Automatic annotation (TrEMBL):
<feature type="transmembrane region" description="Helical">
    <location>
        <begin position="141"/>
        <end position="164"/>
    </location>
</feature>
<dbReference type="Pfam" id="PF07019">
    <property type="entry name" value="EMC6"/>
</dbReference>
<keyword id="KW-0256">Endoplasmic reticulum</keyword>
<feature type="region of interest" description="Disordered">
    <location>
        <begin position="1"/>
        <end position="28"/>
    </location>
</feature>
<dbReference type="GO" id="GO:0034975">
    <property type="term" value="P:protein folding in endoplasmic reticulum"/>
</dbReference>
<feature type="compositionally biased region" description="Basic and acidic residues">
    <location>
        <begin position="16"/>
        <end position="25"/>
    </location>
</feature>
<keyword id="KW-0812">Transmembrane</keyword>
<protein>
    <recommendedName>
        <fullName>ER membrane protein complex subunit 6</fullName>
    </recommendedName>
</protein>
<dbReference type="InterPro" id="IPR029008">
    <property type="entry name" value="EMC6-like"/>
</dbReference>
<keyword id="KW-1133">Transmembrane helix</keyword>
<keyword id="KW-0472">Membrane</keyword>
<dbReference type="GO" id="GO:0072546">
    <property type="term" value="C:EMC complex"/>
</dbReference>
<dbReference type="GO" id="GO:0000045">
    <property type="term" value="P:autophagosome assembly"/>
</dbReference>
<feature type="transmembrane region" description="Helical">
    <location>
        <begin position="92"/>
        <end position="112"/>
    </location>
</feature>
<comment type="similarity">
    <text>Belongs to the EMC6 family.</text>
</comment>
<dbReference type="InterPro" id="IPR008504">
    <property type="entry name" value="Emc6"/>
</dbReference>
Length: 166
């Protein structure tokens, strides 16, 4: 009597002669499977990075970090405005001035030193305060915090104003 062996299985748990229905192996070694596992995108090659050195994942990370910083500082500015007892236009002016000051300090500490070391003609073409190497648009860097953190500022401003004046 012959013993029956279990059929060989591939990595997907199917018998060796069956292939998974929706799996298509990447045709390029630089292919990267995205988080949803259905879409395959090609990573930029070394030559493409030399031509256009902007990496979308890095710009997205920088944008998230900037958003977190702006949200945190907006809440802290709200606490400060509430404790100082600022009302009406003086409170909004306080928020605008300090939000722009935060953007300026971030630019001077993090963006300007690294962008000045790269003296390409493209980086100086759009002016001395160019942020295009690290962020999508200059508006996102300079004024995005005014919009992103406004709700947090109002919330903490009114909370601390009410606590101090009560």
């Amino acid at each position: 009597m012959r013993s029956r062996r279990a059929p060989k299985r591939n990595p997907f748990g199917l018998p060796a002669h069956e292939k998974p229905r929706d799996h298509q192996p990447p045709t390029d070694l630089n292919a990267l499977v995205c988080a949803d596992r259905r879409k395959i995108t090609k990573m930029p090659s070394e030559k493409e990075l030399q031509i256009s050195p902007l990496v979308p994942e890095s710009i997205q990370h920088n944008s998230k970090t900037l958003y977190n910083l702006q949200s945190l500082t907006a809440s802290l500015f709200g606490v400060s405005a509430g404790i100082l007892g600022l009302e009406s236009y003086s409170g909004f002016l306080f928020y605008i001035v300090f939000s722009l000051l935060t953007s300026l300090l971030l630019y001077l500490v993090r963006v300007a030193p690294s962008s000045s070391s790269q003296t390409s003609s493209k980086s100086w073409a759009s002016g001395p305060v160019d942020t295009s190497l690290y962020f999508r648009t200059p508006f996102e860097f300079w004024a995005g915090g005014l919009i992103n953190g406004f709700a947090g500022f109002i919330l903490t401003w009114t909370l601390f104003y009410g606590l101090v004046r009560a």
